[in-house]
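Thread: "does anyone have the structure for this chain?"

Original post by V.I.:
We have the sequence but no experimental structure in hand. Need at least a predicted one for the grant figures.
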Amino acid sequence: MEHSRMIQACLTLFIVAASTYGAHLQASPALKLDQALLTFENKLMDEVQVFYTSDYCYKCLFQPLVTVKPNSNASAVMSTKFTLTFRIESDPRNDSLCRWSQKYGEAGHFSVWIQMSEATSNPTCTHAVDKTPNNAYQPLLVAALLLALIALLYVMAPFIYRRRCTSNLLKTLCCRRPQYSLDNRGGPASEAENNPTKAKPKRLRSLDTFRGFALTVMVFVNYGGGGYWFFQHAPWNGLTVADLVMPWFVFIIGTSVVLAFRSLKKRAVSRLQLLRKISWRTIVLLMLGFCFLNYSPRDGPLSWSWMRIPGVLQRLGFTYFILSLLQSLWGQTEIPQTAPHRWSPVQDVVLYWPQWLVIVVLETLWLCITFLMPVPNCPTGYLGAGGIGDDGLYPNCTGGAAGYIDRWMFGDNMYRYPTCKELYQTTQPFDPEGLLGTINSVVIGFLGMQAGKIIVFYKEWNFHILCRFLAWAVFLGISAAILTKCTRDGGFIPVNKNLWSLSYVACMGCFSFLLLGVMFFVIDVKDWWAGQPFVYPGMNSIFVYVGHSLLGFYFPFNWEMRFQDSHWEWLFQSLWGTALWVLISYLLFRKSFFLKI
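Reply from O.Q.:
Generated one for you, tokens below.
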């Protein structure tokens, strides 16, 4: 009898503990990346409602969060990406009890006590930290230190190796075996050494390095960027790391077009052959974008009902086609290779005035359509995201004229998850690679063509090349500052990657000239760095881009993560997948395999 009572008591305790634990789990849901738990404790006699909005969301309406009954509590999972503004109102009287703005820490538990103040007899909101948030940036700091250490060891390795080879014995064992340099293993340099009479022009290593650096960042971003919001595209206006990559590629395309066409001209390639080559490369890029990168194998057979017509490779292909036409039709004028005179700073612009005229017409077209074209039920010249932004006045005006044109042209065959969908709660489809933005893609590619012309014009004067790069960077940077008024949302034309706005083009042109100038100085002028490891993916960019897009969902580039509440595994997976593609491009370089179109 006593034993049965003990068993019954144990079962009762177990049931109570299990129910308490279950209630605790229900009150404290599992948190994921960039999330925190807020618990609102209402000690008032009235029911209160909690509203919130993100400070990154431009003029967004407050959204209802939870309703807390008298002498009760309610919890909500909140995003920790941006600063949030909260407002608590009394339900019967709709009085604003308190309001505050705060950026909460990841995986933290916080309490907000809503109670009467003994001193003022007014409602107050008191904050408390129930669980200390994690240091979300610790994995990124550790990864940065490890990468810096690897880079340092890579730089110091040749010096350590030479110090160990000082003795005759080690020289005999280590230093007199056949040496294989990465620069002449089956590449152009070895061919020039074996056949001195057939010397090839020196390749611009800084351009390959710039391309490889942009591609490496793109792979890292596409593989998740460690789950950090600043490695993802901005919700609407503003810039993140992910927003820098695409314009760099377009800029490099423009520079490569000038250098490649100059080489083809020296080989006496006819204009008809040029047009055939341009058309074939454009068709291949468009087909790659349509057929291979338009969907995931997990989606099943490709269906026209949901196929996306615009895309990254489609835009790159069209931009390449326009830039190549400009160069083939009006870019064959040879710049005199003479010492610079006082009128030469504008010579590389004046000699190509037909190209500049086309670009001015295109940009004027973009400005007129963007700011003068009437859009049904939307204000003329609207550049916002719509949804709950701009005080909720234009919910169906996402992208203004750019979005309206794409929806009219493509219907539902567009990108269904624009970056503004989550934050602005938009319902209209919007494609960041739409038609109107392609005009400004051509413009930034033309800025890259201007960089190529500078390199050709000042071929023997590196100082003048760097000065010209700096001058263009300053001019474009000042233009971007004027257009944006040095603000994210309050300028004449905000920086916006989704729209490829004029200020975005100017800002990215500034960054491109600066980065290419720095790499040109360090790599091609001073020869302090050979561009490793970025030069390898830069010389096989099509292979790496297509490969990482098609195989990104498969092992060993991707696996099911076990730790969803931390950046550690996600960052490791992103860095691992990126490093694998850099390694693959290095092995292909050693085998002299370069995928060309």
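V.I.: this helps a lot. The longest strand covers residues 123-131.
O.Q.: and Confidence is low (pLDDT under 50) at residues 1-27, 168-200.
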